[in-house]
């Protein structure tokens, strides 16, 4: 397989994942209280949104790379 085809397939997978998940969610721990031996932490969930246009661009770019890869072969 050519490098262009592999990159095209990866972009298609990334585009489909961006449409399916709409964002990346992760959890962080933050100190709320720190009084000597007494420490309290809180878990906060944060989300990095992935706009649908980003998924569409990745999907379209992957398809274009696959087509270009097939023509060169």
TrEMBL record:
<keyword id="KW-0812">Transmembrane</keyword>
<feature type="transmembrane region" description="Helical">
    <location>
        <begin position="48"/>
        <end position="68"/>
    </location>
</feature>
<feature type="transmembrane region" description="Helical">
    <location>
        <begin position="7"/>
        <end position="28"/>
    </location>
</feature>
<keyword id="KW-0472">Membrane</keyword>
<protein>
    <recommendedName>
        <fullName>DUF3185 domain-containing protein</fullName>
    </recommendedName>
</protein>
<keyword id="KW-1133">Transmembrane helix</keyword>
């Amino acid at each position: 397989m050519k490098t262009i085809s592999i990159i095209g397939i990866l972009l298609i997978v990334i585009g489909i994942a961006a449409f399916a998940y709409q964002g990346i969610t992760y959890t962080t721990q933050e100190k709320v209280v720190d009084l000597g031996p007494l420490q309290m932490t809180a878990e906060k969930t944060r989300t990095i949104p992935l706009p649908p246009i980003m998924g569409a661009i990745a999907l379209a770019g992957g398809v274009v790379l696959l087509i270009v890869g097939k023509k060169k072969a």
